[in-house]
């Protein structure tokens, strides 16, 4: 049966750890000039309804490095769900493509695409989640601390698709996750409740930034206004101002902490230059790891779908 990757919980804990270890192996092999051909003979359609630097370039590069061919498909070509139904588009695309990656607004649209496609579908970001990003983040955490388990993570800022993806990560990997945000910018509360009820990890929301970062080994943030919300940028900045990651706030974190940001960053807003360019910043390793983890995700989906 074909497998999809729409949220982190589509992989069980064992599959998730295997995928991270495989990505670390692919990274080592790439640095040694060795290539894998897991996508040989396959074309991957990459559908983008939102802007992208990292996701587009890392997917296209990764597909080519695995011996496949990538197609960049925008709204102008297929106008998914408008020119024809998502169901019909899914059936037709599956007759040509070996895999589909999609970045769009509605998570429900991606679920519908996956339900009706007979090839694996990967979520490259929706308004609800960004699972490939948090997989790359977990890989970066493993490289720094030697494990993804038992880490104390503080997510500061908007309760957006990244916060939701961290909640999903906490349902597969045992961690201590604190989300520091305002009462008006909460993550998906059903997801929070599910994560808390499942009880694998310690998960909580606090509204005090100092309390949020206390003793944290990983301090994470993202923009305060996501794609589709840029007209609310000032209002959201007023709500989240206290959650900026700066050197003073980080005095409360573990002395050996790692700072992560999925990028693109609005420097001076959710994160200062001094932190982003400082000794604890892992943001560019994190960006690089998108390439390796997505190669591992694609190779695993092909293998597990046979
Ligand atoms: N982090 C991330 O997904 O970046 P892009 O929006 O540039 O793809
Ligand atoms: N939360 C951001 C992430 C960008 C990679 C957005 O959705 O725009």
How do the helices and strands line up, and which of them pair or pack?
Layout (H helix, E strand, L loop, with lengths): L12 H19 L11 E6 L5 H12 L3 E6 H4 L7 H11 L2 E5 L3 H10 L4 E3 L7 H15 L5 E6 L4 H9 L5 E6 L8 H10 L3 E5 L2 H5 L4 E4 L11 H8 L6 H4 L7 E4 L11 H4 L6 H22 L2
Parallel strand pairs: 1-2, 1-3, 3-4, 5-6, 5-8, 6-7, 8-9
Bound molecules: phosphoric acid mono(formamide)ester and norvaline.
Norvaline binds next to helix 7.
**Discrete helix count:** 13
CATH topology of the largest domain: Rossmann fold
* Series of H and E elements: HEHEHHEHEHEHEHEHEHHEHH
**DSSP, total strands:** 9
Strand content: 5-15%
Structure explained in plain terms:
This protein is an alpha/beta fold and 306 residues long. It is built from 13 helices and nine strands. β1 (43-48), α2 and β2 form a beta-alpha-beta unit. α1 (13-31) crosses α6. The protein is globular. Norvaline binds at residues 125, 130, 160-162, 222-223, 226-227, 262. Phosphoric acid mono(formamide)ester binds next to α2.
């Amino acid at each position: 049966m074909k497998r999809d990757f729409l949220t982190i919980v589509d992989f069980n804990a064992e599959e998730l750890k295997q995928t991270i270890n495989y990505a670390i192996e692919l990274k080592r092999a790439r640095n040694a000039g060795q290539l894998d051909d897991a996508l040989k003979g396959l074309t991957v359609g990459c559908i983008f309804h939102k802007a992208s630097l990292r996701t587009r370039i890392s997917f296209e590069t990764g597909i080519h490095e695995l011996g496949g061919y990538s197609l960049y498909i925008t709204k102008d070509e297929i106008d998914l769900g408008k020119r024809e139904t998502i169901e019909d588009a899914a059936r037709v695309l599956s007759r040509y493509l070996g895999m589909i990656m999609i970045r769009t607004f509605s998570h429900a649209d991606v679920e519908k695409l996956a339900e009706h496609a007979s090839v694996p579908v990967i979520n490259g970001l929706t308004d609800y989640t960004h699972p490939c990003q948090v997989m790359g983040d977990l890989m970066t955490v493993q490289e720094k601390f030697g494990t993804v388990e038992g880490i104390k993570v503080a997510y500061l800022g908007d309760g957006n698709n990244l916060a939701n993806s961290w909640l999903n990560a906490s349902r597969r990997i045992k961690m201590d996750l604190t989300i520091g945000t305002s009462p008006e910018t909460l993550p998906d509360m059903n997801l929070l409740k599910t994560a808390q009820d499942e009880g694998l990890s310690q998960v909580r929301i606090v509204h005090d930034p100092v309390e949020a970062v206390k003793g944290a080994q990983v301090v994470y943030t993202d923009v305060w206004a996501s794609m589709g919300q840029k007209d609310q940028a000032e209002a959201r900045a007023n709500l989240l101002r206290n959650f900026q990651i700066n050197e003073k706030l980080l005095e409360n974190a573990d002395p050996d902490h790692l700072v992560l940001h999925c990028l693109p960053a609005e420097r001076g807003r959710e994160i200062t230059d001094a932190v982003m360019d400082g000794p604890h910043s892992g943001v560019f390793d994190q960006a690089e790891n998108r390439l390796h983890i997505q190669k591992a995700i694609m190779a695993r989906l092909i293998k597990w779908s046979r």
